[in-house]
Amino acid sequence: MITIDPDVCVLCGLCTGVCPPDAMELRPDRLVVHPNCTDCGWCVAYCPVGAISGGRPVPRRRRPDA
C-alpha cells in the first residue's frame, strides 16, 4: 500500500508523471492516491524528498540528460 507523508511532501508532482496506472492526483493542497494504484513503487523511487512509502522496490532510472 502506498502512503504519503503530508508533512514531508512538497507537492512537486514528479510522482504523478511516473505513475503507470495514472493513480496519483496532485491537488493544490495535497497528493491523492486513487484506488486504481497497483503498488508498483515508481512514485516511491522518484520522490525527491522521501514522502512516499510502500509498494514494490524498483530501481531508480537515470534521466537521459543526467
Strand/helix succession: EHEEHE
- Low-confidence region ranges: none
The tally of helices reads 2
Strand order of the largest sheet: 1-4
- Main pleated sheet: 2 strands, antiparallel
State the shape.
globular
For the record, the count of structural domains works out to 1
Number of strands: 4
Strand content: 15-25%
Helix content: 10-25%
**Terminal Cα separation, in Å?**
30 Å
Judging by the overall fold, what is the CATH architecture?
2-Layer Sandwich
Structure description:
The protein has 66 residues and is an alpha+beta fold. The chain has a single domain (3-53), classed as 2-Layer Sandwich (Alpha-Beta Plaits). 15% of the residues lie in helices and 15% in strands. The strands form 2 sheets. It has a two-stranded antiparallel sheet with strand order 1-4. β2 and β3 (31-33) form a beta hairpin. The chain is globular.
